[in-house]
Amino acid sequence: MFDQILFPVDDSEQTAAATDHALAIAAEHDATLHVLNVADTNQLSLARVQGDVVDALMTEGERAVEETASRARQHGVTTVTEVIQGQPYTTIVNYAADRDIDLVVMPTHGRQKLERFLMGSTTERVLRRSEVPVLTVRPDTDSIPEYPYDSVLVATDGSDAAGAATEVSIDLAMHAGSALHALSIVAISGLGDDVLDDEGFTAVEEEAQEVVDDAIERADESGVVESNGAVEHGISIYEEVISYVEDNGVSAIVVGTQGRSGVERYLLGSVAEYLVRTAPVPVLTVQTET
């Protein structure tokens, strides 16, 4: 399923917390792990500095990738290491596209409260632009679920992006022989007055059920050992997803995002973004291009 995995590294605690997870995925799939450090020489504070500072960044990057590569070798994982000067998120996205990467694994900043999350972080910018699926791991959770996952949840709304996410979630469940949960949320806050009457609400609920049933049918046809479907209702879609995860012991979430050509077109506050920030389990985002 995954042959080439990219794991960008630095010397942060967040990277250290995500390393074991990235190694477990690479080992499980017998994949090559690309360990990349980006020496951020585009910072204004460094733009006017010559020689020594840039060399120090490269040296620190080489140390970071070698430490991770050494741990990978202990797990029998084949690695490719590289240190590249440039803008971190652009370099990561371009590297993934140029090397036929199947999966990017990155940590989040690990904030307990949503308002403390650093908008514009490297991870978030990669999520916005990467055409390659990105698996994010929150380092501040009590424990990161082991890979392969015991159960996988796909959040679906019937869109093309959700369809792509469903296919990936089925592949994950098939590989691990794990349970697949298909969940659709009817967001009450997003329904107009013309829909909130009994007849309109029933129609919306039936449509959501059809979406879930379709995902379950695709899972069953693919041979997934256990599949479960549910339609939930609530004010907040992402909060309902997280509640389902916690109530059902789900190990990972797969969600689709819509591709955007630039940051100004990205829908800030999307369900995928909120899940990445707050979900207690790894979140795999799968993008489709507009």
Automatic annotation (TrEMBL):
Transmembrane segments: none annotated. Residues 1-138, 149-286 form the UspA domain. InterPro entries: Rossmann-like_a/b/a_fold (IPR014729), Universal_stress_UspA (IPR006015), UspA (IPR006016). SUPFAM superfamilies: Adenine nucleotide alpha hydrolases-like. Belongs to the universal stress protein A family. This is Nucleotide-binding universal stress protein, UspA family.
